[in-house]
Amino acid sequence: MAGDREAFRELVDRYGRYLFQAVYGVLHSVKDAEDVTQEALINIFAALPQYRHQGFKSWITRIAVNKAIDYKRSKERKKEQLTSDWEELEPVAARVGPNTVEDTLLEREKRERVRNYVDQLPEHYRDVVYAFYIEEKSYQQIAQEQQIALKTVESKLYRAKQYLRKAWKEEDRG
Predict the structure, then answer these.
(1) Which of 14, 21, 38, 137 would be a feasible disulfide site paired with 141, CB 3.0-4.6 Å?
(2) pLDDT of 129-169, one tens digit each?
């Protein structure tokens, strides 16, 4: 028990600041980065038996950055849910403006369809789509955060768009 505490303390002392910086790069919030870094350190410590002794720093960075991305997504989903809940409470006629009620409802339905398609994308495409279109990150930022080549970001976005077009056409036919 005391050995575990000492090993955890050494992990925190040696890599805590480094991981905080990596997580902060994703979240841009000191408080959120501190919380996520703590969770990441606990997860890393718990996962040490599964570590395959290849690139320790890369391994722990990937765990921490993925934790940060998950946290950010979760926060976005909550924000989207609050926004959509508010939109449902707001009377449709108040939002109509120059459009008709029908136009407004069709636009909302279209946005919902796109959101559903994006949620159905394979995870490795969905991550890049969210990062680029929702989080408005550059290809460079995405490549750095996900530790992939710039060309990989481009191809994943291209393939995701192809997947979405195909899904959209199939639904229109069906």
Answers:
(1) 137
(2) 888 877 778 888 888 888 888 899 898 888 888 887 887 77
